[in-house]
Amino acid sequence: MNTRILLLLSLISLSACKPPGAGASRFETTTVRPGDLRAVVMASGTLGAVVSVDVGCQVSGRVMKLYADFNSTVKRGDLIAELDTSIYAAKLKAAEGELVGAKASAVWKKQNLARKKELLPLRGVMALDVEQATAELGQAEATVTIKEAALDQAKTDLSYCRISAPVDGIVVSRKVDAGQTVVAAMNTPVLFTLAQDIKKMRINATVSEADIGRVKMGQKVDFTVDAFPDDVFDGLVVQVRISPTTKENVVTYETLIDVENPEQRLFPGMTADVSILTAEKSGVLKVPNTALRFTPPEGSKVSGATDAKLQRRQQLVYVLEGTDKEPTLRAVIVTTGITDNSETEVIEGLEAGARVVTATLGGAKESAEGPPPSI
């Protein structure tokens, strides 16, 4: 009996010592103020030259000399490689000889036809002989035409052994070595890749289908690369391609971004983390996105538009009212505008100075005896 009395007195004493409001939920808030907002679309992409040209060879052969290497600057028409010419020079001589023989045969057959035409009135030959000689001359002249074409082809093949730069640019890739044999059978072997001008580069960015509707030509872009993590570079959207790319059921769209690179710090192949500026406003009321996601804990005192049906671009925020001992929440419907993924514009529903709740702090935890007291 005495033990029960002592236990009861202890519980009464602890209850009397408990501060007012202990166990009640406490809230983290922020004050609504005007400020600037920049709405962006996040994406990633790869840097490359605006114009990149693969330089190949159109004939097979052994690479004899290379006149360009990685990072070499070349002008259009500069000799950058040579293949072994011995086989193609021999083919050219053979084609020249065959053309001479074909022309000689055509001359003889032309003379033969003329003689037979002279003998025909004298009945030294028959009309059939003249017709046959005419046909042979036509065939000989056709052979001359074929041999002339073969000679042109031999000259062209020989010229292909000298490989020149098709554009002004810089060598970003060399894919052969001197002494290597290249075979131009089904596909053209690539010897070099030239970037026409790396002072102007392009990002090929992939934008998700959820964001592509906000991306337009002419929008400004900020981006970073791992090589210079503390530097922010800028660019401009020049094309939004309508052809989708689907990978693992994720649809994205290619967006091309032009970049100035006057100091040539950016290299082809670098990965760029891109922020595309889709909208920008100054002096607008804004709230943290955490305020838009906040849900009051169970048992909180909430007034206002708790059961309201939200329309498009409407969300609920909770304004903190009451006293520190007995805080209350008022649900407010706000119309939202642009967002930078951290803060969101409030077009209607709040005034500057309002305290909106962003999180719950330090409430009493539920124990084995039940939930904590509610406010």
Strand and helix layout:
Layout: H1 2-17, E1 26-31, E2 33-49, E3 52-56, E4 61-66, E5 73-74, E6 79-83, H2 86-119, H3 127-159, E7 162-164, E8 169-174, E9 181-182, E10 190-195, E11 200-208, E12 220-225, E13 228-247, E14 250-260, E15 271-288, H4 289-293, E16 302-304, E17 314-322, E18 327-339, E19 343-348, E20 355-361
Helix pairs in contact: 2-3
Provide an overview of this structure.
This protein has 375 residues and is of the alpha+beta class. Among the domains are: 41-51 and 197-282, Efflux pump adaptor protein, beta barrel domain (Elongation Factor Tu (Ef-tu), domain 3, Beta Barrel), CATH 2.40.30; 53-181, Helix Hairpins (Orthogonal Bundle), CATH 1.10.287.470. 23% of the residues lie in helices and 43% in strands. It has four helices and 20 strands. It has helices at 2-17, 86-119, 127-159, 289-293; strands at residues 26-31, 33-49, 52-56, 61-66, 73-74, 79-83, 162-164, 169-174, 181-182, 190-195, 200-208, 220-225, 228-247, 250-260, 271-288, 302-304, 314-322, 327-339, 343-348, 355-361. The strands form four sheets. It has a six-stranded antiparallel beta barrel with strand order 2-11-14-13-12-15. The protein has a four-stranded antiparallel beta sheet with strand order 3-10-8-5, with no helix packed on it. Strands 7-6-4-9 form a four-stranded antiparallel beta sheet, with no helix packed on it. Helix 2 (86-119) runs antiparallel to helix 3 (127-159). It is elongated and about 135 Å long. The two termini are 36 Å apart. Residues 5-23 and 363-375 have low confidence and may be disordered.
